[in-house]
Write a structure and sequence with these properties.
- This protein has about 400 residues and is α/β, with parallel strands linked by helices.
- The chain folds into two domains: about 270 residues, Zn peptidases (Aminopeptidase), CATH 3.40.630.10; about 110 residues, Alpha-Beta Plaits, CATH 3.30.70.360.
- Helices cover about 30% and strands about 25% of the residues.
- The strands form four sheets. An eight-stranded mixed sheet has the order 1-2-4-3-5-16-6-15. The chain has a four-stranded antiparallel sheet with strand order 10-12-8-13, covered by helices on one side. Strands 7-14 form a two-stranded antiparallel sheet.
- The protein binds zinc ion (2 copies).
- One zinc ion (ZN) binds next to loops.
């Protein structure tokens, strides 16, 4: 097969996409997926960096054109590779063969478009200066897979990083892109309210943790309205409340869990502080004790302005249309690559959305990517990476 021929490349990538769709693997179990990516890249003569990753891999295309200012430039593209524990409900001829697992988030497209972009750049490496690293990342659905990649030194020389996601709210040929925040910081909390259990008819013998939990829930919901700048997006959801075993016993314990989403870093810090103060203050007022467990997950993703403009320009030059990328209080662990805390320094990045045909949302059992997007997506990413490294 001549991969320099566009028609043949399209056919090849479509076949690979179907293979990946048929063989979905869950977070950190992507062994077959990784082996296949490795085989395809090696077959195209693309170098794979020898990182000791259990799943996922990093490939590199080294440009052969000398860099005018002598500076070594490296940019990266993140492609996530894992699937979801969903029973597929499509009648596609290439539907999942691993029952109960499904590429319902389009990561099969991410893999294939990434491989396609690498093949296109490898063919033009004589005209390319600098290096492009292709990060095939495990465990995005777990929101911590990026941290596995960041245990390697892959980002040490990376100047900028690109990421993308399949977008079933837009047609093929539409790129969603914007400068600024596009995904939220994802934090998780658990609260334990310790009271004193007693008979349901004699609450004065104990400390009922249930009204304390109720007051805490009310209190937590006022943090956004009263403490966070009204122009800043933020959200709190209490998603689990548990207490008691029967109708005539006041329990000793009430437990809650939930999530906080913020965009601005200062709001994230403020929210955690106010949540702790609210929980502890209310518990004390009721004579109970409360404990807060706060778990930081991925930070917010902030798209660099210069990169967003470049992504837009390239889309238009490829005959695509651009729309303002929808902001989401969902998260993506792509943001870890840009953070000082995890990447070692701040690295500008841009996370964009590639229209995959309007249909069921991601994570839906009937989610489906229009295969006509595969080659244009690969070409678009290759063009963006080429332009960015110039
Ligand atoms: Zn997903
Ligand atoms: Zn996804």
């Amino acid at each position: 097969m001549d991969l320099q021929n566009e028609k043949q490349l399209e056919q090849y990538l479509t076949e690979q996409f179907e293979w990946f769709h048929r063989h979905p693997e869950l977070s950190y179990e992507e062994a077959g997926t990784t082996a296949r990516i490795r085989e395809l890249l090696a077959g195209a003569g693309i170098e794979i960096l020898p990182y000791p990753l259990a799943t996922g891999l990093v490939a590199v295309v080294r440009g052969q054109k000398s860099v005018p200012d002598g500076q070594d430039r490296t940019i990266a593209l993140r492609c996530d590779i894992d699937a979801l524990p969903i029973v597929e409900e499509t009648d596609l001829p290439y539907a999942s063969e691993n029952r109960g697992k499904m590429h319902a988030c389009g990561h099969d497209l991410h893999i294939t478009a990434g491989i396609g972009a690498a093949i296109l750049l490898q063919a033009r490496r004589e005209q390319l200066c600098g290096k492009v690293k292709f990060i095939f990342q495990p465990g995005e659905e777990d929101a911590r897979g990026a941290l596995k990649i960041l245990e390697t030194d892959v980002m040490h020389d990376v100047a900028r990083i690109w990421g993308f996601h399949a977008d079933p709210t837009n047609a093929v040929g539409v790129i969603g892109i914007r400068e600024g925040y596009v995904t939220a910081a994802v934090d998780r909390f658990a609260i334990r309210v310790q009271g004193i259990g007693c008979h349901g008819a004699h609450p004065d013998d104990g400390i009922d943790p249930i009204p304390v939990a109720a007051a805490i829930i009310q209190g937590l919901h006022t943090i956004i309205g009263r403490n966070i700048n009204a122009f800043h997006p933020a959200l709190l959801s209490v998603t689990k409340v548990q207490a008691g075993t029967t109708w005539n016993v006041i329990p000793a314990l009430a437990e809650m869990e939930g999530t906080v989403r913020t965009m601005q870093r200062e709001d994230r810090v403020l929210y955690e502080r106010r949540l702790r103060e609210t929980v502890e203050g209310i518990a004390t007022a009721y004579g109970a004790k409360a404990e807060v467990i706060w778990i930081d997950s991925a930070p917010a993703t902030y798209n660099d302005g210069r990169m967003a403009r470049l992504g837009e320009e390239i889309a238009l030059s490829q005959g695509m249309r651009t729309v303002p990328e929808e902001q989401s209080l969902g998260g993506d662990d792509f943001s870890y690559y840009m953070e000082e805390e995890t990447a070692g320094r701040q690295i500008p990045g841009c996370y964009l959305k590639i229209g995959t045909g309007v249909g069921h949302p991601i994570h839906h059992p009937a989610f489906c990517v229009d295969r006509n997007v595969i080659l244009p997506a690969a070409k678009y990413l290759a063009a963006v990476l080429t332009a960015d490294i110039e």
